[in-house]
Amino acid sequence: MVKDSKNTPLRKSSTPYKLLLDKDTKLPNPADLIAIEESDAEKYVYFDYEIIDFKGRTITIRSGWRDTYNQEIILINDYILVSCNCGSKITHLCSHVTKLFTRMIEKRDHGYFERFKSYPFTDTIFFNKYLTLKSHYYKDVKAVPKPEFGHIYKFENDIDAERFAPYHSFFLSPVKTKEEDSILVSYAIAAHYDFSIPFLIPCKAILNAEGNAIKSFVNFYNPEFGQERLDSAGKLLHGHSLDFNKLLNFETVHKHYRHATNEEKADLRHIAFNYWKSIVPLLKDQRNLFYHSFYNKLSYKGNLPKNSMRPIALTDDRVSFRFILSEHEGHYKLRHNACINGQDFEVGEVLPAKEPFFFSLKHAPELFYQFFSPEEGQAIGELVKAGGIFTILKNDLEDFNNGILSKLTLSYPVIFKLSKRTEPLGLTVKSKQIRVEDQGEYVAFIPSIVYNEGFDVPVQSGGTEMLQFNKGLFHVVQRNKADELKFKTFFMELHAAFNKQEALPYFYLSKETLRTELWFARTIYNLNDPNVTFTGLENLTGIDFHIQLPDIAVNVQEEKGWFDIGVSVTFGEVELSPEEIQKALKKRSTTLYLSNGKTAHLPDVFFEKLDTVFRSGTITDKGVKLAGQHYTLIDQLYNKVERPDLAKMVAARDKLFSEQENIPLVPVPDNLNAVLRPYQLIGYSWLCHLQSLRWGGLLADDMGLGKTLQVLTLLQHLKNKGFSTAPHLLLAPTSLLYNWQEEAAKFKCAGFSWNGTGKGYCRIK
Question: Which domains does the chain have, with CATH numbers?
Answer without folding.
Answer: 11-116 (no CATH), 146-169+317-421 (no CATH), 177-311 (no CATH), 429-543 (no CATH), 551-602+619-656 (no CATH), 678-764 (3.40.50.10810)
